[in-house]
Amino acid sequence: MSHLYIYSPSGAVRDKAAFKRGVKRLQALGHEVEIDADALSTSTRFAGDDDTRLAAISRAAASGADLALISRGGYGVTRLLDRLPYKAIAKAIEKQGTRFVGISDFTAFQNALLAKTGATTWAGPALCADFGSEHEPDDIMLACFDDLLAGQGEGAGWTLPKHEAVEKPFHLKQGVLWGGNLAVLSSLVGTPYWPAIQGGVLFLEDVNEHPYRIERMLTQLLNAGVLSSQKAILLGQFTDFKLTPHDKGYNMASVVAWLRSQIKVPVFLNLPFGHVPTKVLLPVGAPVSLTAEGREALIFWGHTH
């Protein structure tokens, strides 16, 4: 049995039923679930005012939990970056073994922590959307979650699209894995909370963003010198956008083609991560190796060689 701590560093929890379902499912899996005192607090669109959410993060760091899981994303962490208890969070990770897990707005927390301390966090599920869904949680996500708690997770493999088969095998011995939600990540450029990783493996995903907005944010990273300085770029799932007649065929494939025309860094598609049920858990800030051959890709953090 693992000790899980549920807290809300970003948006207010509106779907209380999903919150309760998520807690019950985690308990049914045999975990001890501790709920932060302000997990369901609200202040306009946030899960409490800034001080309330900062205190919740501090309590998560002091909880001694095996895993600290966000209730949901939304928006709010970037308001807190100048006040986060970085040393306490890094100590909780290093000394207590607490894994901080989240997605979406949590990207700001993860990359700021990486920039300030070098500590590793995990890109993965959120309570409401993943464990509290009206449908059963995805088997792959659950297996990855269990592996993390058991200390057995060593990597993640996936299948590239048919038209993306790699003709010449790609092997990367080592690079730091980093990234997350593209919109949140791009908002950190030029701030003290930007990790400035060189020679890394950058993974990206987003939701509710039209392809032209995705391209605009990628352009920001391109012009900032970020994309060309990586060893590989992994594109996860970009979902819930709607094309319009004005696009005239411009879509995500157009964005990928443009991206590849701008950089020599290999770009691999279909990483199973994003605002989707099927997601792997990824160690943000950890050294990884990466291979791609044919349609099979594997990212490995158990050890690098």
Give the SSE layout.
Layout: E1 3-7, H1 16-28, E2 32-35, H2 50-62, E3 67-70, H3 86-96, E4 99-102, H4 106-117, E5 121-123, H5 127-131, H6 139-150, E6 155-159, E7 166-181, H7 182-186, E8 201-207, H8 211-223, E9 232-239, H9 252-262, E10 267-268, E11 282-284, E12 287-294, E13 296-300
Parallel strand pairs: 1-2, 1-3, 3-4, 4-5, 7-8, 8-9, 9-10
Antiparallel strand pairs: 5-11, 6-13, 7-12, 12-13
Task: Report on the architecture of this protein.
- It is a single chain.
- The chain has 9 helices and 13 strands.
- The strands form 2 sheets. It has a 7-stranded mixed beta sheet with strand order 6-13-12-7-8-9-10.
- The chain starts with a strand and ends in a 5-residue tail after the last strand.
- The mean pLDDT is 97.
- The chain has 2 domains: 3-150, Murein tetrapeptidase LD-carboxypeptidase, N-terminal domain (Rossmann fold), CATH 3.40.50; 155-300, LD-carboxypeptidase A C-terminal domain-like (Glucose Oxidase, domain 1), CATH 3.50.30.60.
- The protein is of the alpha/beta class and 305 residues long.
- 44% of the residues are buried.
- Helix 2 (50-62) runs parallel beside helix 3 and helix 8 (211-223) runs parallel beside helix 9 (252-262).
- 31% of the residues lie in helices and 24% in strands.
- It has helices spanning 16-28, 50-62, 86-96, 106-117, 127-131, 139-150, 182-186, 211-223, 252-262; strands spanning 3-7, 32-35, 67-70, 99-102, 121-123, 155-159, 166-181, 201-207, 232-239, 267-268, 282-284, 287-294, 296-300.
